[in-house]
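The following record pairs a protein chain with its ligand, adenosine-5'-triphosphate.
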Amino acid sequence: MDLVLETKNLKKEYGSKGMVFTAVDNIDLNVYKGEFLGIMGPSGAGKTTLLNMLSTIDRPTSGEIYYEGKNIGHMKNRELSIFRRNNVGFIFQDFNLLDSMSVEDNIALPLALSKVDSKEIKDKVKRLSKFFGLDDQLRKYPYQLSGGQKQRVAAARALITSPSVVFADEPTGALDSKSSSELLQCFSRMNQEFNTTVIMVTHDAFAASYCKRILVIKDGKIHAKLDKDETRKEFFKRILDLLASMGGGVDELI
Ligand SMILES: Nc1ncnc2c1ncn2[C@@H]1O[C@H](COP(=O)(O)OP(=O)(O)OP(=O)(O)O)[C@@H](O)[C@H]1O
């Protein structure tokens, strides 16, 4: 399997002398092409801090991050922002769509910013909107969509640059259970059909059960790892069992 993302001794500290708090504590991680990786853990465990460093939004205090073997720590801010635009897709809990733009323009935005040929943009928007069941929504504006539709627009936008990795931070957090299931099925399909690598932070064991592998983070460290080698329902039960066995501080995850 091809290694897409690798970290070595990844650390993030907040504060200054005498008052240092370690949010992510020496994490070593390998993520392979086509993985659907879930990151779980109690509130304050360091999940978002880890995700922000992996997705290049934030820089580590120490340690290394390699994308397809390339150390991104040496990149200057401008180079890093171009790298991010071309290699990383984002899906946030609150969608982050631009209200003044149509669905079509929201999906196309990352390519429009990269000055890609308009025919190529149209073709890609068409293909992805079909995949996400949004063909009839392209002329609408975000306020005219349901939460589930908005999140599928965000997913299409995240995929349009064919990124190495798509990061999703609590993508089902603002959705009802039916929309959550639909979105997670889309994630599984995009993972299978496009071989997209997805890294998703979630509190929700049901959402996590769609992943192929789960890391549970606690106090900034990897506390447990789970690989899916059974049906989704059986995996869901195993996740619940693990979280229950962890006891204090993880009740909120269940
Ligand atoms: N900018 C910051 N300055 C200081 N401390 C921070 C900062 N950002 C995060 N922290 C602390 O780092 C720890 C990890 O935060 P993080 O947001 O990564 O946790 P999380 O696992 O994503 O939590 P949640 O599930 O509640 O979103 C927390 O104790 C938090 O208070």
